[in-house]
Write a structure and sequence with these properties.
Layout lengths: L1 H20 L16 H12 L1 H10 L4 E8 L5 E12 L3 E6 L13 E5 L3 E7 L5 E3 L1 H13 L5 H7 L6
Antiparallel strand pairs: 1-2, 1-5, 2-3, 3-4, 5-6
Helix pairs in contact: 2-4
Length: 166
């Protein structure tokens, strides 16, 4: 009986260690896009050009603000991650919580992160009426997926109707 209890406890500890060492998988597999795709370039340009509107909306709806940032994983792979905005850190940085786990990262990763505003590639803010402002790269990806004939998950497609232009 003691042997079984010891095995059970060690198994639980092993599972807990594994869950903390391995990065979780994203909810959706990333859509492979060419970074030079004109729709993606346009989306990033629009996001950067509308950062003042992001900060205005962030002041009104701070609990529903996300940013997409340029991220280099510990395997030297560039990824583009969404993060929840927790606050400003001076004029040039944001304190964020990563919500999209990096696919290429190995081992543990602290989800709290400070990112430079210059590294922002997109932003999205949801208001009290469930309208989403920004999200330019996701809108571009919807168009790219349609062009490629890909079927997106229903949950993801439902977001398409929530986008609202500035």
């Amino acid at each position: 009986m003691t042997f079984i209890l010891v095995i059970l406890v060690l198994s639980i500890i092993g599972l807990a260690v594994c869950l903390n060492v391995v990065s979780p998988l994203p909810e959706y597999a990333p859509l492979m896009t060419d970074p030079d795709d004109p729709l993606m370039i346009e989306a990033e340009e629009k996001a950067k050009a509308t950062l003042p509107q992001f900060f205005e909306l962030y002041e009104k709806f701070p609990e529903n603000a996300l940013v997409k940032l340029y991220f280099v994983s510990n395997t030297d792979q560039v990824e583009h991650l969404w993060a929840e905005v927790l606050g400003r850190e001076g004029e040039n940085s944001l304190k964020v919580r990563l919500v999209t786990p990096p696919v290429t990262h190995k081992g543990t990763l602290e989800r709290l992160y400070t990112c430079a505003i210059a590294d922002l590639e997109d932003w999205a803010v949801q208001d009290d009426g469930n309208r989403i402002y920004g999200g330019f790269s996701e809108r571009a990806m919807f168009k790219i997926a349609e062009k490629q004939g890909l079927r997106l998950p229903k949950k993801l497609l439902a977001r398409k109707d929530q986008y609202y232009d500035l």
